[in-house]
Design goal:
- The model has no long low-confidence stretch (mean pLDDT 89).
- This protein is of the alpha/beta class.
- 27% of the residues lie in helices and 27% in strands.
- It contains 8 helices and 15 strands.
- The chain is globular and about 65 Å long.
- The two termini are 25 Å apart.
- An 8-stranded mixed sheet has the order 10-9-8-11-12-13-14-15, sandwiched between helices. The protein has a 5-stranded parallel sheet with strand order 1-4-5-6-7. Strands 2-3 form a two-stranded antiparallel sheet.
Length: 301
């Protein structure tokens, strides 16, 4: 019995079967295939069907709407949406006169018009999504963190050998929750120092961990774009502690718009999900699939 309509992994055994078509003018459309009584079984299914999708751009949003309307057309009454990352997640306010609040006035009204029973997002950047999107559900990043910690150090006393690093004051709330849930004693707070024009002049860290020998510094955040913030933090950590401790980045949504070369010059390992896209995993990059094993759960790709 189909439980989802998986727009990321159509081969998912729990997904109903569908086809996507694209017209010469760029329009996309979606059709549910009546293979093996697919449509009749969907009609008879009393639980909610969950559309699983990336939402990186308007092309993704177009297919989400098509999928929802297809399900409604065949009589599915309860439809949920699972979008681990929501495009514009950082555009949570109007930044300048003449601009817009992208989430509030562009993205949220379109999603709300589809009347989803629930809209689930993983580790959202701010509370604005919850305030603007109807029937919103937020999932924390604990599954990603615990999977990463086990991979990094699964021996007794690991929490004493780890140091949590908050990239800035804005991430402190989430980092403190991780500290409380996983019993990690040491924590550092990063700061971006700016000039009068708002340009970043240098990065510093507040806090002290004493002897860093044998310790792993964990930079934890929700989004990595180009990675400069994390690179500069890693530089400061390795300069401040003479034995150059291991530095690991755990980031829920990895855009990595500038690639990995510079990141891996300064950061020893990266742990992320495939919420944005699939990357080729290697001995330094660990990516977890969050689309085929239930919402919010991770497994190594």
């Amino acid at each position: 019995m189909a439980e989802t309509l998986n727009l990321v992994h159509p081969e998912d055994p729990l997904s109903c079967k569908y086809e996507i078509s694209k017209f010469p003018d760029g329009q996309q459309t979606l059709k549910i295939i009546n293979e093996g009584h697919n449509i009749s079984s969907l009609k008879a299914y009393s639980q909610a069907i969950t559309i699983k999708s990336r939402l990186n751009n308007f092309k993704d949003l177009e297919l989400i709407i098509c999928a929802n309307q297809c399900l409604k057309e065949i009589g599915v009454e309860r439809v949920r949406l699972y979008i681990p990352y929501c495009t514009g997640g950082r555009s949570d306010r109007k930044f300048e006169e003449g601009g817009i609040n992208y989430i509030k006035t562009v993205i949220a009204p379109i999603i709300n018009s589809q009347n989803f029973e629930k809209v689930t997002v993983l580790d959202p950047h701010s509370d604005v999504l919850e305030a603007c999107i109807n029937n919103f559900e937020s999932i924390n990043n604990y599954n990603l963190v615990i999977k990463s910690l086990i991979n990094i150090d699964n021996k007794d006393g690991a929490e004493d050998r780890m140091v949590l690093v908050s990239p800035d004051a804005g991430a402190l709330k989430k980092v403190f929750k991780i500290q409380q849930n996983f019993g990690i004693k040491n924590i550092l707070i990063g700061s971006k120092n700016r000039d009068l024009k708002g340009n970043i002049t240098h990065t510093s860290i507040d806090g002290e961990v004493g002897d860093a020998k044998g310790k792993t510094f964990l930079i934890v955040d929700d989004i990595c774009d180009g990675g400069r913030t994390f690179i500069e933090l890693a530089k400061v950590i390795k300069e401040q502690y003479q034995n150059k401790p291991k530095v690991v980045l755990i980031v829920t949504h990895g855009i990595f718009s500038k690639g990995f070369d510079t990141i891996f010059e300064h950061i020893d390992e990266v742990y992320t999900t495939n919420s944005i896209k699939e990357f080729e995993s290697n001995d330094k990059l660990n990516q977890y699939d969050i689309f085929t094993v239930g919402k919010g759960h991770c497994r190594k790709r």
